[in-house]
Automatic annotation (TrEMBL):
SUPFAM superfamilies: Metallo-dependent phosphatases. This is Metallophosphoesterase. Keywords: Hydrolase, Membrane, Metal-binding, Transmembrane, Transmembrane helix. Residues 176-338 form the Calcineurin-like phosphoesterase domain. It comes from the Bacteria. The chain crosses the membrane at residues 6-25, 37-55, 67-90, 134-154. The keyword ATP-binding does not apply. The keyword Zinc-finger does not apply. Gene3D superfamilies: 3.60.21.10.
Length: 395
């Protein structure tokens, strides 16, 4: 099974790099030496991706960044090169079609002129000019997207203030603020300083409640416990709460549940509690069933007082389909990263009912934060990270 999966990955990576070689090397070089150098570089870059995916899992945590930085940055650049080059196939085709009629007209005109350059040389020069022009355009656009995206990914998250109205909200809770953060993704590229910055930003808004809706880590407690430790400094009037995301189940969720609880951040595991006339509930991630830790909506939501509004913490927006069946007023989620790198947001929208911001599933409002970190490439283009301050008001 593993061998077959590896073969498929290598086949896909090879096919993508063959296309890049054709457009960036074959179409832009004239000499054999230049083509050989370009070919060797493309082969090397093709090997970087599977090597990064393998070594980032097997190397000691302290050394994973050595392969993660170059590997994931190339992955992002490769993605945008593919996107831009595929878009540029349209003008490439148009230019080729435009040249054909021009050749027919030139051949039909019987005029004796001064000796011209051989047709093969003219054709080769045009081919090189077209190939190099489109390759340069793709390179500049792709490098710009990755540069802007890396700046956004590594910089501080945006602080978003989001007013949401709940019909059942008691008048005494009008203006109740929930600091919502998700997808912090501590790992080889994001460490303790990342957590400390997030904690400072959250504490600065003086929220009534802090909600961390999953995907805190990409690694074990032994590797990342110190990086997550600043969460113990979170301050909110009614405390801080956490629900698991899918990445916790790749990282030893049992240990992480205990670790997060030890920071004074309460992990809601298919349960709810009342806070000042509002029910706060939390369910495990939708993927938890594969680890024997499935979300249990009945346990978390059934038997409550229907006169009180309920806010549900659930990592994935798609979980709102179950929440809507149980009359949840508001679900707070993450998971999507807002697509992280446009146009991935279009693909995410095929799986999740809300990609970012406020939406609705049935009668349930769903607010999705883009998250404060990144996964894979340290790039967020068109989907900057955020921490959201959800402010509740009566309808």
């Amino acid at each position: 099974m593993i061998v077959a999966l590896l073969a498929v990955v290598l086949l896909i990576v090879g096919a993508l790099h063959w296309y890049l070689w054709k457009r960036l090397v074959k179409d832009t070089t004239r000499t054999r030496r230049a083509r050989r150098i370009g070919t060797a570089l493309v082969v090397l870059l093709a090997l970087v991706i599977p090597a990064t995916l393998a070594l980032s899992r097997t190397l000691p945590h302290s050394r994973q960044a050595l392969v993660a930085w170059p590997g994931f940055l190339w992955l992002a650049l490769m993605f945008y090169l593919l996107v831009t080059l595929l878009i540029l196939e349209i003008p490439r085709l148009a230019l080729r079609l435009w040249k054909r009629p021009a050749k027919v007209v030139a051949a039909a005109v019987d005029v004796v002129e001064a000796p011209a350059a051989p047709e093969e040389d003219v054709s080769e020069s045009r081919r090189l000019f077209l190939g190099r022009s489109l390759a340069a355009t793709a390179g500049v656009l792709s490098a710009s997207a990755v540069g802007i995206g890396a700046y956004q990914a590594l910089g501080p998250p945006n602080l978003k203030r989001v007013p949401i109205r709940l019909a059942k909200l008691p008048a005494s809770m009008d203006g109740f603020r929930i600091a919502l953060v998700s997808d912090i993704h501590l790992g080889p590229l994001l460490g303790r300083a990342h957590t400390e910055r997030i904690v400072r930003m959250i504490n600065g808004v003086e929220a009534d409640l802090v909600a961390i809706v999953g995907d805190l880590v990409d690694g074990t407690v032994a590797e990342l416990g110190p990086a997550a430790e600043p969460l113990q400094d979170l301050r909110a009037r009614h405390g801080s709460f956490f629900v698991t995301g899918n990445h916790e189940y790749f990282s030893g969720y049992r240990e992480w549940v205990d670790e997060v609880n030890s920071f004074g951040v309460r992990v809601l595991r298919n349960e709810r509690l009342e806070i000042q006339g509002l029910d706060l509930a939390g369910v495990n991630d939708a993927t938890g069933g594969g680890s024997g830790d499935a979300p249990d909506y009945a346990k978390a939501l059934d038997g409550r007082d229907a006169a009180r509004p309920v806010v549900l913490l659930a990592h994935q927006p798609v979980q709102a389909h179950e929440a809507a069946k149980r009359g949840v007023d508001l679900q707070l989620s993450g998971h999507t990263h807002g697509g992280q790198m446009v146009p991935f947001n279009l693909l995410v929208g095929l799986q999740q009912p809300v990609v970012a911001g406020l939406g609705k599933v049935g009668g349930t409002q769903v607010y999705v934060t883009r998250g404060a970190g990144f996964w894979g490439p340290p790039v967020r283009f068109g989907a900057p990270p955020d921490i959201s301050v959800v402010e509740l008001h009566g309808a």
